[in-house]
Amino acid sequence: MSRFEYAPAPESRAIVDIKSSYGLFVNGQFVDATDGKPFKTVSPASEEVLAEVSEAGPADVDKAVRAARKAFDKVWGPMSGKDRAKYLFRIARLIQERARELAVLESLDNGKPIRESRDVDIPLVAAHFFYYAGWADKLEYAGVGDDPRPWGVAGQVIPWNFPMLMLAWKIAPALAAGNTVVLKPAETTPLTALAFAEICQQADLPPGVVNIVTGAGRTGQALVEHPDVDKVAFTGSTEVGRAIAKSVAGTHKAVTLELGGKAANIVFEDAPIDQTIEGIVNGIFFNQGHVCCAGSRLLVQESVYDEVLARLKRRMGTLRVGDPLDKNTDIGAINSSAQLAKIRELSQIGEDEGAERWSPECELPAEGYWFPPTVFTGVSQAHRIAREEIFGPVLSVLTFRTPAEAVEKANNTPFGLSAGIWTEKGSRILWMANQLRAGVVWANTFNRFDPTSPFGGYKESGYGREGGRHGLEAYLAH
Amino acid sequence: MTTLDSGVDSLADVTSSEDRLRRFLLGLPGVDQVGAEARAATLSTRSIKTTAKQYALDLAIRMIDLTTLEGQDTPGKVRALCAKAKRPDPADPSTPQVAAVCVYPDLVATAKRELDGSGINVASVATAFPSGRSSLAIKVQDTKDAVAAGADEVDMVIDRGAFLSGRYGLVFDEIAAIREAAGDAHLKVILETGELVTYDNVRRASWLAMLAGADFIKTSTGKVSPAATLPVTLVMLEAVRDYHEATGLHIGVKPAGGIRTAKDAIKYLVTVNETAGPDWLDPELFRFGASSLLNDLLMQRTKLATGHYPGPDYFTLD
């Protein structure tokens, strides 16, 4: 061997025990669904069927909500915050103990590289439970009034891009605030939520406090529309978010929505160049671009455009695409064939509208759903690829000349979830952060998450905040 | 300012006056500390196994500058080190030789005799190592002595005091003078990054050394803590990569001090591979300044070959 070619270093699957079929988790037990057809969940990297999962129909959802109501009235609601905290700490520790298993399971079911599930997702999941466990007995100090009270039963619907992390974002603050939950994971990635159900059993969490109903849109709709749900939390597409907003309008339900994005990642000529390139890569290729706050619109100051592009392309050439369980993989599989079709379609539209498409040479595996890291240059605000969320490893590059123009272009979008600024000038960072209509503005970094930091959007990116004290507020009536 | 656009001519321009040099160095893009350290941390999670590990271990051995730089060094100690350099693992003749043996100038002749015909270079730390605090005349003489005694490579230290007080021209002139005094010997310029502290300084000092004629840029003397770190080496690798883009020249990088385990060495090789590129995975362009690293590499090598770890007594002290 004359060159340093990394040998495959796959993580063993043996640590995970995947059952051939799963029921629903209702009232502390796994139960059979009564009125839905079972469906299969596959590994997007190989199309191998991993397990059969139950579809919850309206009757099943009703049972789960009733179990949650009962647990709220009899056990969880009356329990002291200190005692709730004990359960949450226990769950957090169990997640840490089973971290490797959960990471492998997440990578198998979702297609994301083990490097990310192991080093980012699961540690953040545990961190969220630890963080909100700390709040459970201090709710009156959260700054939302003297006597904050839980809403009751929370109906939560989460997406497939960060299955376990989104579960933590939803369940940890809800339980800390004293609510009970019925959660529906995405139909393509239900397995870690079901593993979490086992963790709830292991932690001796009182029955009914957490209920997991699997299924697709129909199940989610039944949950959101259930009359005995007090609080709805949804993360997913803007289109579904709109439908949910309509369905809860005029009811007593509280609602938070965390929807799509088309974030501007803004690079000034004085940016720390090498870290900026890493930030651009991390902004759009992290989790195959399946990130609602992904930095999918790169705005580069014209004076450094050539240099940034040359360096970006060189760096993209070193990205390793392939087996998500290989520890040296940077970019894993696209989550589903439907998502792959959408990415392909929008990329084709980009080409048809005259933008220039580039990908590094890379061999994609024959089985499974794959899309190479891709950059479009010559993009203008009028292109569809600059306006619509692609939700894949596809970056659109635009240019600007002055800070004011950067702000104008960055804000010229129906979305407003996140933005990034790259400059060595501190005063400009502060000025920009005030101008940008985005829920999160990162400076000289991108896609960093922390349980203490609120997250959420402007405009079509939704409303409400998750994380931090603000995330608690969403689960408290005050 | 764009490092990619600058051709050889414009780089010659920037060294034409102290003022231009200063403006050029201060105009280099900044290094974000958090980002650089995060990148280095990501690179160190690469998993290198089986054939890749075998390759990496042998390559790391071939890249070692086996070093002794103690006040108590004697010809006897240097002879022992040279014997080890030639046959690192007496039990396994397939083990490659190291790249060089690095000693103080007064021991160069001894090392040269011992290594005669082996193909292993003798490197010498000249220029009032490790502080560098003496007159230029003495540093030049120190260098000439080392080269006259047979040194193939000269490791010089920069004047950190001059650098930190912004006298870049002085540092430049000194490196250029040593470059000339060293003649055909390879010049490695030690930045002593632990004393430069910031990554911005590391990047500037790297460029300064390259512009002044360094063949290699080296992190540390090993006498100051922190010595070599992965993020510092990453920043230096970025600098040689950019310099290559601008001039077509290949400059080497040598982290020195504190790299003791095969696992650490492999992290450095991964960083080389993914930053400067595979061209730099060559003893001509990347070296480890180390003394204790070698035995751990030998131990891991034996483990790969036999399936078990031999005890430390199965390897020679030096």
From TrEMBL, chain A:
Species for this entry: Kribbella sp. HUAS MG21
Domain of life, per lineage: Bacteria
Coiled-coil residues: none
UniProt keyword annotations, A-Z: Oxidoreductase
Family annotation (InterPro entries): Ald_DH/histidinol_DH, Ald_DH_C, Ald_DH_CS_GLU, Ald_DH_N, Aldehyde_DH_dom
Active site: 258
Listed name of the protein: Aldehyde dehydrogenase family protein
Domain Aldehyde dehydrogenase: residue ranges: 30-476
Family: Belongs to the aldehyde dehydrogenase family.
PANTHER family per UniProt: ALDEHYDE DEHYDROGENASE-RELATED (PTHR11699)
Gene Ontology MF terms: oxidoreductase activity, acting on the aldehyde or oxo group of donors, NAD or NADP as acceptor
Automatic annotation (TrEMBL), chain B:
GO-annotated biological processes: carbohydrate catabolic process; deoxyribonucleotide catabolic process
Reaction(s) catalysed (UniProt annotation): 2-deoxy-D-ribose 5-phosphate = D-glyceraldehyde 3-phosphate + acetaldehyde
GO cellular component: cytoplasm
Pathway annotation: Carbohydrate degradation; 2-deoxy-D-ribose 1-phosphate degradation; D-glyceraldehyde 3-phosphate and acetaldehyde from 2-deoxy-alpha-D-ribose 1-phosphate: step 2/2
GO molecular function, one term: deoxyribose-phosphate aldolase activity
Keyword Transcription regulation among UniProt keywords: no
Organism: Kribbella sp. HUAS MG21
Source species, domain of life: Bacteria
Protein family per UniProt: Belongs to the DeoC/FbaB aldolase family. DeoC type 2 subfamily.
Sequence intervals crossing the membrane: none
Protein known as: Deoxyribose-phosphate aldolase
Enzyme superclass (EC): lyase
CDD domains tied to this protein: DeoC (cd00959)
Keywords for the protein's UniProt record, in alphabetical order: Lyase, Schiff base
EC number: 4.1.2.4
